[in-house]
């Protein structure tokens, strides 16, 4: 009977059992490793062996990260106070990852009591348990928790540098509050939107950052290009923009299409000229009418709000397209880019429906 059940079990069932059993054995070894790590720390052999600390010695000799080594020493140190936690780990009710969180919490509070945390550990995943332990720490000592947050805020930094190819490199650390503000602003904008959204999460976050920074308003940037560049003629130089290397003609065309960027157009002799300004500028009245008519990005399936959209000329004004309601549609920044730089085509049907044609189909 048992044999029959095993034979009909879904593929992977035996592996699932083995994974759980193996993890319990590994956890038991981790606990033993932690005990040894703490006694090694107390022995100060690491000092005799010319290391700065037991953590450093373990990190180097046991091929571990600093955090992993520190966690093991911490678990080992607190283990005499973690009798019930060790028992719960032995029966599989919690994992070594939970014990690590308990030990980290014991490091930071004075009157530590494992019985207050153990029920939470049994109910929650290690990640969620870590979160709940932070609440526990705050409830025991709000002042110490505040001091910790202040220390984290002091470590904030943001570095911007331009790579040789013109890309902006961003690196930095934000304190939990600042980080949460950034996440709250970017996450809604980073959701997949509209048809044909094949961007990965990192690409969507990058787009969300640019979109958020411009806050739905045109960026206050000056773009300089010749008429030849704007028309995309062969042999024309690239366009110029503050803080950027030369940019391609299709990007210039996109920025010129949404007429509100500050623009200086140059003739080939580098004389500033103004091409059909009265024809291309979307007046505030026309902009209001466009937003009221379209309501949001007109790309099929995209609902990015009107305030985050550009007015796109179906026939570019540089090619004689009029700046009027009939020739304009709202497009969010990403879809506007897909049309100009990506080569997608937008067709308006007689029923005012917008249809997209992929570049490969043209
Ligand atoms: Zn456009
Ligand atoms: Zn869109």
Please tally the β strands and state the result.
Answer: 10
How far apart are the first and last residues' alpha carbons, in Å?
63 Å
Elements, N to C (H/E): HHHHHHHHHHEEHHEHEHEEHHEEHEE
**How much strand?**
5-15%
Q: Any low-confidence stretches, pLDDT <50, length ≥5?
A: none
- Strand order, largest beta sheet: 4-3-5-6
Q: What is the CA-based Rg, rounded?
A: 30 Å
Small molecules bound in the structure, each named once: zinc ion
The amount of helix comes to: 40-55%
Count of the separate structural domains: 3
Please count the helical segments: 17
Quickly give the structural class. alpha+beta
Tell me, briefly, the overall form: elongated
Q: Taking all residues together, what is the mean pLDDT?
A: 88
Major β-sheet annotation: 4 strands, mixed
